[in-house]
Amino acid sequence: MKKSPSIIAALALSGVVVYSASAQVGTLNARMDKAAEGLEKKVVTWRRDFHQHPELGNREFQTAAKVASHLQALGMEVKTGVGKTGVVALLKGGKPGPVVALRADMDGLPVTERGELAFKSEVRTEYNGQQTGTMHACGHDTHVAILMGVAEVMASVKNDLRGTVKFIFQPAEEGAPAGEEGGAKLMIKEGVLENPKVDAIFGLHINSQTEVGTLKYRPGATMAAVDTYAIKIKGKQTHGAAPWSGVDPIVTSAQVVMGLQTIVSRNVTLTDNAAVVTVGALHSGIRQNIIPEEASMIGTIRTFSPEAQQLVHRRISEIATNIAESAGAKADVTINVGCPVTYNDPKLTDQMVPTLEAVAGKNNLKITPASTGAEDFSFYQEKVPGFFFFLGGMKKGTKVEDAAPHHTPDFHIDEGGFVLGMKSLCRLTTDYMEFASKGVAVKELTASGTSGK
Ligand SMILES: [Zn+2]
Ligand SMILES: [Zn+2]
Q1: Residues lining ligand 1 (ion), CB within 5 A?
Q2: Cβ(148)–Cβ(46) under 8 Å?
Q3: What does the alpha-carbon distance between residue 402 and residue 329 come to, in Å, rounded to a whole number?
């Protein structure tokens, strides 16, 4: 790339700034790293307490109370009850600069924990009318504990921070109970990204199948948009012995199910991104000799771009409606838009990758394939540039196939990665602040070698 004289002059100028800024960042980083290491035991203790006392989405009362009292003890301005049980705290640095938000989700899942951990959850509750165990089976207990640790680290270097940190402890990432609002969407609706306005947001997710010490990320579309659909096929009920006198919704549904399979295989541009259309339930009929009136199906849609999302929605409607019509039946199609794509802003990602390389070591930072799972962190990223990454939580030397996936009763997290998680969030925050308040590219800061290890 050719550089104009004015750009070269500006670069030379910024070079001077980089040098002095890096020296300061270097000592600040060293202090934060030391503080994070010193807090490891405390974070593990918090995590075990949260793990033993999980709460479902929008019911994180005790979790939120513990978080709030910790943040208050650190001298922060704390708001509770944001988006139901959410907690938001502000840490104003000693120097002016941007507002960086850090987010942790707090909810557990209706999963009954197996295994013999000393701090195993024995909590039982009712969910959707069923008795169930409750478990931190996605590792959100670790996110809460890590972010509490980060808050303590950052409070200890408060005077040297070039900006404000907004700590967001969010309820109901896995979805609010039926009929309730919740999660990131509700917190945003209640103004979590305003007053003061957030300039960038960072978040991490622990991963049970990634080794401790490893960080993973992906630029751009990282996790899928998730939408749900429901199709009701209305036929005409008749005797099972005389199908010609009715309209069979079961045979029609079977054709619709097969028709839906062509959306991904024949309509989606698969060289751009993957997509999924799943039929998750199909119900019809009551007796062997009755052709019923109706059939209904529900399913999930995963896409990685707004274009693919619109295309899939349109094709589901067209296929269901037209197949039903061709059979003399009628299809009612409802599509519920859920979470958007978890999309790592490419510019922000580019700026922050060197920070993660510096914290984890270059060989321990990996690019991960896009995941068809979803994450409601995506709602924040729709509003402000955001970066979401994954933290290793699998014991070193474990085979991936031996590590239980998220949302299962044997889900397990090795606690050895918590310090790396804390350091990552701390450094992303301070490097972003340096970048934003001085106009210095983070790449240059870390490349100077004073902030890396
Ligand atoms: Zn989950
Ligand atoms: Zn999760």
Answers
A1: 138
A2: yes
A3: 48
105 Cα: distance to centroid of ligand 2 (angstroms) = 8
- The rounded Å distance from CA 261 to ligand 2 centre is 28
Catalytic machinery residues: 107, 173
The answer to whether residues 304 and 371 touch, using CB atoms and an 8 Å cutoff, is: no
Q: Residues annotated in the binding site, as ranges?
A: 138, 140, 174, 205, 407
pTM over 0.85: yes
All structural domains of the chain:
19-222+341-438 (3.40.630.10), 225-338 (3.30.70.360)
Each residue of 86-140: pLDDT tens digit? 999 999 999 999 999 999 999 999 999 999 999 999 999 999 889 999 999 999 9
**How many A from CA of 146 to the centre of ligand 1?**
17
- The Cα 391–Cα 213 span in angstroms is 8
